[in-house]
Amino acid sequence: MRVLLVDDHELVWNGTRRLIEAVAGGLAQLGGLQFSAVRDVEAACRLAPPFDLVLLDYHLPGVDGLAALRRIQAAFEGVIVCMLSGENGPERIRAVLEAGAAGFIPKTYGEAEMAAALRLVLQHRVYVPAEFLFAEEVVRGRAPDEVPAEDLGAFLRSELSQRQRQVLALALRGLPNKRIARELQIAEGTVKVHLSMVYRALGVHNRVGALCRVLQADAASALE
Hints:
The protein has 224 residues and is an alpha/beta fold. The protein has eleven helices and five strands, in the order βαβαβαβαβααααααα. A five-stranded parallel β-sheet has the order 2-1-3-4-5, with helices on both faces. The protein is globular.
């Protein structure tokens, strides 16, 4: 697992590396950890090696925020990017996820919470703060015929095809359509068709809606 941290506070580097190494030590499937850190997006884009995961601070010198996310996505095509930020309002989290990030970790977390979040991210699973999921639950009205949360796992297994579950699982890991197509050896247009059918089945309009539905119901295991 090759991890890149982009954070302009160099004091954060050693602490993050220590925490990631501790978490990765308990995850044998990672096959070792290679950790790199740089101060800004420009320095990140000058790095030659590909990375499996980029941890990107929201506030950086020069290019930051969603512009930084888009720059990293363009420089490292298909890379999984998880955003870190000291500000974790629902609108910011939603914007980051809609822009294609594979997760959002508040920098205000304590060590135990941060370790739990990183454990999920290192396993290529999306981490979203519980407070955001709760906010989404309040904001998004439920349709009368919506599948109850307790039945969603069974619904995903029975009503979605195997390919649809595969596409949804990769989408919820933050992979762009092009990389999903490459992973599954199908056309990018086919990926879009599958996702459109999945969103319709879930009663949502986009990946963020699907992510919230699946995580709220704790139904991600149904996609494995």
